[in-house]
Design goal:
The protein has two helices and seven strands, in the order ββββββαβα. By secondary structure, it is mainly beta. The chain has one domain. The strands form two sheets. It has a five-stranded antiparallel sheet with strand order 6-5-4-3-7. It has a two-stranded antiparallel sheet with strand order 1-2. The protein starts with 14 loop residues before the first strand and ends with a helix. The N terminus and C terminus are likely disordered.
């Protein structure tokens, strides 16, 4: 998958930032990929990453959550949709991933 170049013009209200080495080895996401991030009122699950995923043929934003051996995509209302295992998650996560409470973004999210 080629490096993505996404800007705030692609998704209104979202800022872009670049993935660091902490994301290496997670599916197809590699350091240097452009990520999308936004301050949110809903606090996502701890250690979850925000993703743009394809679920049942539809693009959806949500937080990727792992509970034991099961992966879930959780939306801003706290609703979870189970994903069948790590390999399926690697296929589902197609564009962006971001920790909303990491570094400078943590202050931005907390301030909104």
């Amino acid at each position: 998958m080629p490096n993505q170049t996404l800007t705030t013009h692609d998704y209104q209200g979202w800022r872009s930032r670049t993935a660091g080495p902490e994301l290496e080895g997670f599916g197809d996401i590699k350091p240097g990929y452009t990520l999308l991030c936004q301050a949110v009122e809903y606090r996502p699950p701890q250690d979850a990453n925000l993703v743009l995923a394809v679920v049942d043929g539809e693009e959806r934003f949500g937080w990727l959550v792992r509970n034991g051996d099961t992966w879930y995509l959780e939306n801003q209302h706290g609703d979870r949709r189970a994903l069948p295992g790590l390999e399926a998650v690697r296929e589902v996560v197609v564009r962006v991933m971001f920790d909303p409470y990491e570094g400078e973004d943590a202050g931005t999210a907390a301030a909104k």
